[in-house]
Amino acid sequence: MSSHAAPDDSPLPTPPFVQIPGMVNVRDLGGYPTSESHQRPHSSIRRGLIYRGGEPSRITPEGREVFKNLGITKVYDIRTKDEIGTEKNDTVSLGILRQPIVELEGAERIHLNVFAENVEMKDKNESAKNWEKMGKNTTERFIAKAVEVLDHGNNLIPFFAQFAKPNPAPIYLHCTAGKDRTGTVVMLLFRLAGVPREIVADEYQLTDLGLREAAPKIVEQILKSPNLGLDEETVKQIVVAKKEYLLGLCDVLEKRYGGAEQYFRDYLKMSAAEVQVIKSNLIVDEKPIFGRADQDPNTGYGGLSCGLLSPDGTKRV
Q: Which of these ranges, 21-25, 27-31, 284-288, 307-311, has the smallest mean pLDDT?
């Protein structure tokens, strides 16, 4: 997290965060500038269309009402089968956090496996080595897991295909914490729409802010997992969201896959016409409500100015 992070006791900036009791790290992905590769200087991502965040197993009755009022019709769950429990919250086995499935009124839950297959961690030594790697060389680790998601993009076709149809309804996308896998999928949409790579990375880094209360408990849960033998600092690195992770992934998208549009054609098997429809659904002719905050360290969250922008592009007081 940047040095500009909000104090622990300050409210999360809204937008982009959406306060849903019992859920963490929920953000509206609208309002970000898309002018990098478009001749539309005041264009931005449509607000109220795509939400990202953590899994919803702790949502409260009040939270259910808030969620329902967002008009979300589909919830895309991109966790592995190992992460989906059947009994109660926070069961831990071999370092894998399991939470039960929660159905939300008015929204269809759709499970998509973003990896090649669900690899079950049956061996404790294998699991321990896997977690230890996750806490070291974190940029390389993040990119390696993201590439695994991207290489099997056909698994995500149902998610992206909905935006290739007229008037898509609002959706919610989540993995466990709404961090890495969710961030990889969001990166694809943002880069297709021309969101500048620095802002893509800044938006991802907001996850540190969104998880500031949940992260210590996640670390505690992993440390309690038997036979892993991981130190606390290694585990803490696993739950950090650094902007260099996404900047590196944006580079990989260009070098390995030929950029977002090429990826949508080659890996998601979408036509040029379908890609154009997706862009049209994502982008609106409205001034962005977010911008870079590099020149104002007192207003930035992870490099973003999380407040409405005045006509001259400065943050409103």
A: 307-311
